[in-house]
Amino acid sequence: MHPVSLLALLTSTASAATIHPRQSTVNQAVIPKSFGVTAGAGRDTIQVGSCVGANNKPIPCFCPPAPNSPDFLGKLTKALTDGFIFSRAQVAIPITLAKFNDAADTSVETNKLRATAMIQVLQNFNLTQQGVGCPGVSAPVLGVMQTTGRADGDASALGNSG
Q: How many CA atoms lie within 13 A of 146 on its CB side?
């Protein structure tokens, strides 16, 4: 190949990468600042070894992780990138990373899909066994978002407000 052609090819490839960068992390701007519950709150008040979730339901004391937790963000990114949580498609993610990250899309449907994906990641948080993680009552803001599509879901009346 002629050196000028090679240079043109490399330049066009670099330009295309700049125009369409590969997304590798979630856009935190589309994630609620709080899930409505603070991890560790109300330890042992309802059930020994548990903490308090929405509507005074017992939850594991590590639940929920902070919305900006590197562990949560990493697991959410992996699930959105892979399209499912485990190596088999038992827990399929209903939205792609690109669509999840599109902050210009504030539609009810997209917000519901975002909430569903975040809840699925929380409910399977240890990524070793399906359903082992944080129950939905540990993230009532996501429950409101999943039901209504409103990303500003106020869950303060549900109990442990975080």
A: 16
Cα pseudo-dihedral 150, 154, 157, 161, rounded to 10: 130
Asked if residue 145 lies in contact with residue 111, where contact means CB atoms within 8 angstroms, the answer is: yes
Find, among 8, 15, 23, 43, the residue nearest to 102 by Cα.
23
Please write the tens of the pLDDT for every residue from 25-71.
999 999 999 999 999 999 999 889 999 999 999 999 999 999 999 99
Q: How far apart (Å, rounded) are the C-alpha atoms in residues 7 and 47?
A: 67
For residue 148, what are the contacts with CB-CB under 8 A and spacing of at least 6? Answer: 108
pTM: 0.79
